[in-house]
Amino acid sequence: MDDECKIEADVQPSQPTPRSLILDLLSTVAGHAVPVRALVAAAALFGIQENGLRVALARLLAAGRVARDERGQYRLAPGAVLSHLLGWRRLEERTSAWSGGWYAVHTAALPRRPGRSLRERALRFLGFRSLLPGLELRPANLREGLPALRGGLVALGLEREAPVFELAGLDPDSDARARALWDAAALLRRYRELERALAGSAARLSALPLAAARAESFRLGGAAIRQLALDPLLPEALAPAAPRRALVARMRSYDRLGRALWRGWLGESGSAPLALPVHGAADLGARESIRRIA
């Protein structure tokens, strides 16, 4: 296996489940209703049986994750996770110059949560890492500022009573430990691997059968979006931003290819053809990230 194939094998996400596939597909056409037959047709690309898909759809409906209209068609229920996930194009708009301070969340007095809690999801989505037990930090380099950050954390699952504040003046040892909470080298390596994988996939998609091309764009686009959705947006002093910007630019280009591949999806299922909305078909596969990290 050559180096490019190794990289692409590494960045491919796992096979979607019926549940994650439904959420992925509906997130891509947010605001539009989708008939079951279109979901069934898409599921077939991944070897998912119709019965399994219908069972998952019924459970998502019962849980309030999807809604059904009067025609029996389904749409995604809106939420903060989806909004965060689909914001990958605007990552660089969220950052500002870093003066060396930190945003902090104090969780020590909050009740313990079994397993992976909504609190942990919210903190991970917004790039926090644990400096001490009960003290989570991230660089204070977000343009939105502290009030918006606090609101975003709560919307994603952090308890309202959790103190969220700015922290400065760490002693040198604590500051050094805080700066080392993120593996910058691994992050930069991942950016470059995904950027190369997207470029390789884009070069061959047109030569693949339509079903194979759609499945590849779903999986690989989802892997890139998952990486960007979880990006800690580190300041330049901790990790160079150029590789992240290159990945976003490559993903925008890949998104246009994916949009073209998936544009006829509903029409082929007997519904009116749908021009995919601005977040595009490369966002197919993105909700797989929620299954992994939510």
Q: Element order, helices and strands?
A: HHHHEEHEHEEHEHHHHHH
- Radius of gyration from CA coordinates: 20 Å
Mean pLDDT: 83
Tally of helical runs: 13
| CATH architecture annotation of the domain at 101-167 | 2-Layer Sandwich
* Oligomeric state of shown chains: single chain
Strand order of the largest sheet: 4-5-3-6
Shape: globular
- The structure class reads alpha+beta
Strand content: 5-15%
The CATH class of the domain at 101-167, by name, is Alpha Beta
Helix content: 40-55%
Q: Largest sheet, described in full?
A: 4 strands, antiparallel
Low-confidence stretches are 1-12, 273-294
CATH topology of the domain at 101-167: Alpha-Beta Plaits
Quantity of strands, as a count: 6
User: Span between N and C termini?
Assistant: 33 Å
Description:
This protein is α+β, with helices and mostly antiparallel strands. The protein has helices spanning 3-11, 18-28, 36-44, 50-62, 80-85, 118-125, 145-156, 172-179, 184-204, 210-229, 242-262, 265-268, 287-293, and strands spanning 66-68, 74-76, 102-106, 129-132, 135-139, 164-167. It has a domain at 101-167: Alpha-Beta Plaits (2-Layer Sandwich). The strands form two sheets. Strands 4-5-3-6 form a four-stranded antiparallel beta sheet, with helices on one face. The chain has a two-stranded antiparallel sheet with strand order 1-2. Strand 4 and strand 5 form a beta hairpin. The chain is globular, with a radius of gyration of 20 Å.
Quick tags:
Alpha-Beta Plaits, four-stranded antiparallel β-sheet, disordered N terminus, alpha+beta
